[in-house]
């Protein structure tokens, strides 16, 4: 089941890359690269930082097929993709829930401090988007608005609270992931953003 | 001979970095860094992804000398460099042919899937340019036009077809490299680009 | 004492990240990430290039606390921070002196060529700023003006001259760091920049 979620998340990330690359009027190759970077960028950065090489996506060719497949489908049916907006948002949100938990676990496995593990979870879930925006010559969208990385961080904190409470591993995985997903869904639904630090915007 | 090609390719990449950095009116230091990043960025990213450290250029000081030397010459003779345009284009094209094959070989050596090896060849040959453009605050040119990465990918595919056909290693190296070079030369000569996916541009 | 300098340098780098992120009107999360990237980006790139993982800041949680702490203080007292401009400039300059020497030493420890070690020193001291500017969608400021990286390179050269002269390790550390600091202070004081290579600017 986790694998299915992972694949759905990868698809959603890849498609979000395609949409932004097409806005920038990139060619077919550029679009595929941006789809890739969006889908595997966060996990790649995490693996490099903790020294896991070859990085994960290079060891399982399925990701490559899923990314190329969903990118090509997204290009082909680009006029229809807006109808899928809600599904894509859901896949993406479920994806960051899963990616966060996977990142936290890899940090624990590498023997790192809880705060660093939470950072790794957040990096896994959100730095694909940061790289995507940087390559598209934009200031990363998650630096400017939206409870996105914050949801990942709250999920990571939940993870360690549950360990502290002695909860069993499988439940921790699911509850921490669910916190990420719920926080993001609620924030978007209720239009919650981080408090502005710029006085004239209040 | 391969070493000579490698050096010529490194020179061409470094000089292409100098030209773009000067357009952006960077100072001497910025120009040198962009020359470096263009010349060694692709190989560095490849080495990081497969876990080969210290990365290659750090182990052979010749690259550093060649890059600094050609960058300084390019700055000094910047008014004359446009006369060398055709030679530079040739060096650059021969360079990506070589870099592609080297990248594919390192992937095979690391025991990776053929498709991942081809991706590594393409990354080696073209991500120096991607990093150069990103640091110069431009959307990478290879994401928008020109059969460049596509030539690398076709060369990588040729490599594995030749292995499948049982061709001897030395020939594979040369034929796959030649495919990259020929595809790029033909594409530029015949002004072939990837088919547009934006309807109003056809 | 070195640790104190390191912490002061980290603080200065983090605060410089905060100031630029706020100019770009990023949200709280974006500001924290830019503070982090500015403070640990150079050392992280150095560690990745030579294969030291998990990268340094992940192994000592103090850096994370210092960065988050100084970033939050900088946001809170943002109106007052301009009064601290001179102190910050001093911390930053002392920081790059220290970072340069640390980078050179890690290169020597990894058995690399002196020129590569000097490059590592410069990367440690200045690539946090390069990443900061790239994520903020600007051409890196050190590519366009200011004797900054040049000061690091001169400090690195001093390091190897002192080794060659047989000076004791502790003195080398201090003298090479002092050269970086003095060159930068003098250059800013006397408004010295690299000689322009663009004729119409002379």
TrEMBL record, chains A, B, C:
Q: How does it sit in the membrane?
A: Multi-pass membrane protein
Q: Where in the cell is it found?
A: Cell membrane
Q: Which UniProt keywords apply?
A: Cell membrane, Membrane, Transmembrane, Transmembrane helix
What stretches pass through the bilayer?
6-22, 29-49, 61-77, 82-102, 108-127, 147-165, 171-188
InterPro entries in UniProt? Gly_transporter
Domain Glycine transporter, chain residue ranges per copy: 4-78, 90-162
Q: What is its main location?
A: membrane
Per its UniProt record, what PANTHER family does this chain match?
A: INNER MEMBRANE PROTEIN, UPF0126 INNER MEMBRANE PROTEIN YADS-RELATED
What does the sequence similarity comment in the record state about its family? Answer: Belongs to the UPF0126 family.
| Name recorded for this polypeptide | Trimeric intracellular cation channel family protein
From which source organism is this entry?
Gaetbulibacter aestuarii
